[in-house]
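Researcher: I'd like a candidate sequence for this fold, 707 residues long. If you have to choose between options at a position, lean toward the conservative one.
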């Protein structure tokens, strides 16, 4: 790629294999030339559409516009890399010229010293010759010869000095020309930075639109949570009504028993009253008979009085029994009324239960529709953002590290377009600015990290291939991000939190007819040897040289406990919906890469040296694969390392990939942090293709696909 600046200030660039700015087809349209007017027109271009309500057309026009912007950005990035390379080349040439000039000056000084010594010696000889000239004529001739030799030597020295002066002038002219070229490159670089800033502003605007879509998803999640809570409340009310119904039935049975007891008591009381009436009638008859006889015989007056008193007591007893009968009849009426009320309440509760069942069915239907909408919106956002996203996480300073304000090398911009996404690094007085999809400050919690990737984990359940890996120098917090701290629930890493989310979602989706099968593998890549950490066969996981894999953590000058191997956690998911007969297959890869480090700084020797060389080689191969995919090259070097060969299914262009770049704020690690950020920036600019959902509408073989 060759770039040039014409006299009119127009930037022209030939981009072999690039497509036209207004085309959405492939890359066969030939080279493209960008000018400043082209870039300005692209930045100020307004998307045209026939109808503002045709969202499909608006989405297609927006996607086409984003693709052209990405093409322009990619062109600027590659042009910037070429200018940086040319600047570095000129700097090296200037350094060589300066070194050459310095060597010439040193050589010239040495020659001058030697000549001065010779001149001094010759002058001594000349003085001695003059003294001897008065004494001997023969010595005069010898002194004259020496003088001629001295003149010849002086002339030779003057010629050499003139040649050196001419060469020095020529070198200084070359240096001045190089400085002018460097100044021109710097001016061009500043211009490119301005264009890049304008593009970043527009990218921030697009990011705002994506954030609004995120807010829509979050609102949908809140509504979904509300519906789930409402369903739970309805289920609780339904259960409470069922309990009340059961209690009403028990109460009704008790009332019926009491009613039966009262009826029996009334019957017995009626029998007793009848007996008392019969006794009263009998006694009245006896009284009448006795009164008739009393007229005849006055001797029976005492007996008559006794019988009258007995009759009076029996009348009182009869009145009491009648009062008890009336009270029992009143109790029976009250019991009948309570039974009627309970029956009415039972019917009302039955109707309420039927209404709650209908509301529950509607809520479950809304929940299914909301889940489908969430999946659609999330996948749309992922396609707009690109398939390789980069999150940057800065670990806190550890005890013993320099925490003074003067030693701080990392800062975070507060501008609206870079807030939460930008990070600045100072090195040797020069500021390096980077922008990623998300930047986590040192006080960010493990929960904050997981919230940002939870929807990406959900994609694996929806049938997508997902790959999340942590990259960075040794000691930057990669293992803490992926695994967390054992024994502390609040500091759990991504891997245990992902498993918790998947199992919870798996349980909640059972009501929608989904059943999931999970298959887990845990692999370690140590010195280009793949080991199965879940294997029970100890011999199967031994290296070829017979070294046991029990210890994969070593000590270096940069980290007391440094991971010396790559850890790959893979979860293969197969889901089947019995009602729709739909089957999905997803893969979730969570990777803790070994720490990158410089041999000169890590101080590795022996086995540690071999481990470091193997680690750096595999990480370099990973970068080669990502860049080859981004450039859509015909050959992608997956087989250059065991790491890239193992990840080929999830880096092949149809997966959702996220990279965590972990850096340390310690001032002594600024160089390594800068290298990591530069690599992450290049990865963030890569597009490896659109992710595809693995769905089949008919039952498949029960064996899990390896993805």
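Model: Candidate sequence:
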């Amino acid at each position: 790629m060759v770039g040039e600046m014409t006299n009119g200030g127009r930037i022209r660039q030939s981009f072999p294999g690039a497509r036209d700015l207004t085309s959405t087809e492939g890359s066969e349209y030939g080279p493209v030339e960008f000018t400043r007017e082209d870039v300005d027109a692209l930045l100020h271009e307004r998307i045209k559409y026939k109808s503002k309500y045709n969202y499909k057309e608006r989405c297609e026009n927006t996607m086409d516009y984003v693709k052209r912007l990405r093409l322009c950005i990619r062109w600027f990035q590659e042009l910037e890399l070429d200018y940086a390379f040319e600047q570095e080349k000129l700097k090296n040439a200037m350094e060589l010229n300066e070194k050459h000039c310095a060597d010439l000056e040193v050589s010239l000084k040495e020659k001058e010293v030697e000549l001065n010594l010779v001149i001094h010696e010759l002058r001594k000889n000349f003085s001695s010759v003059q003294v001897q000239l008065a004494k001997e004529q023969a010595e005069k001739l010898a002194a004259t010869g020496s003088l001629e030799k001295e003149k010849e030597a002086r002339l030779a020295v003057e010629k050499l000095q003139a040649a050196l002066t001419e060469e020095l002038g020529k070198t200084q002219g070359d240096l001045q020309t190089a400085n002018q070229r460097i100044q021109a490159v710097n001016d061009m670089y500043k211009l490119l930075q301005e264009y890049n800033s304008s593009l970043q502003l527009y990218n921030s605007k697009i990011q705002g639109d994506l954030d609004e879509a995120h807010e829509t998803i979050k609102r949908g999640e809140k509504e979904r949570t509300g519906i789930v809570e409402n369903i739970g409340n309805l289920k609780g009310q339904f259960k409470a009504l069922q309990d009340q119904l059961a209690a009403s039935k028990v109460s009704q049975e008790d009332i019926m028993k009491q009613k039966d007891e009262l009826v029996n008591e009334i019957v017995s009381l009626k029998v007793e009253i009848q007996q008392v009436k019969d006794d009263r009638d009998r006694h009245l008859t006896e009284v009448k008979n006795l009164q008739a006889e009393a007229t005849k015989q006055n001797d029976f007056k005492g007996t008559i009085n006794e019988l009258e008193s007995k009759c009076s007591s029996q009348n009182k007893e009869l009145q009491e029994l009648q009062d008890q009968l009336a009270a029992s009849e009143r109790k029976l009426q009250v019991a009948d009324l309570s039974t009627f009320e309970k029956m009415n309440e039972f019917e009302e509760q039955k109707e309420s239960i039927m209404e709650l069942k209908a509301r529950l069915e509607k809520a479950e239907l809304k929940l299914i529709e909301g889940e489908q909408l969430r999946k659609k919106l999330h996948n749309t956002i992922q396609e707009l953002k690109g398939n390789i996203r980069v999150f940057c996480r800065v670990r806190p300073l550890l005890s013993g590290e320099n925490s003074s304000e003067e030693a701080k090398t990392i800062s975070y911009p507060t501008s609206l377009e870079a807030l939460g996404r930008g990070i600045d690094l100072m090195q040797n007085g020069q500021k390096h600015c980077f922008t990623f999809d998300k930047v986590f400050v040192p006080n960010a919690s493990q929960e904050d990290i997981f919230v940002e990737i939870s929807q990406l984990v959900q994609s694996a359940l929806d049938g997508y291939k997902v790959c999340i890996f942590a990259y960075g120098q040794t000691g930057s917090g990669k293992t803490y991000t992926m695994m967390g701290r054992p024994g502390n629930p609040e500091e759990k890493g991504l891997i245990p939190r992902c498993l918790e989310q998947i199992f919870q979602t798996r349980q909640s989706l059972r009501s929608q007819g989904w059943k999931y099968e999970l298959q887990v593998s845990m692999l370690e890549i140590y010195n280009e040897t793949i080991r199965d950490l879940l294997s029970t066969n100890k011999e199967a996981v031994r290296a070829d040289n017979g070294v046991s894999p029990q210890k994969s953590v070593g000590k270096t000058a940069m980290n007391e406990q440094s991971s010396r191997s790559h850890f790959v956690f893979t979860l293969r998911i197969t889901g089947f919906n019995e009602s729709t007969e739909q089957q999905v297959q997803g893969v979730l890869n969570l990777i803790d890469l070994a720490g990158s480090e410089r041999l000169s700084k890590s101080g590795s020797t022996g086995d540690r040296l071999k481990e470091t060389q193997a680690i750096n080689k595999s990480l370099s191969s990973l970068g080669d694969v990502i860049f080859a995919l981004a450039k859509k090259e015909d050959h992608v070097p997956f087989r250059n390392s065991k790491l890239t060969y193992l990840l080929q299914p999830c880096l092949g262009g149809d997966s959702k990939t996220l990279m965590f770049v972990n850096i340390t704020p310690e001032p002594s690690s600024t160089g390594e942090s800068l290298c990591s950020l530069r690599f992450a920036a290049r990865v963030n600019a890569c597009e490896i293709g659109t992710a595809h959902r693995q769905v089949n509408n008919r039952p498949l073989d029960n064996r899990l696909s390896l993805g």
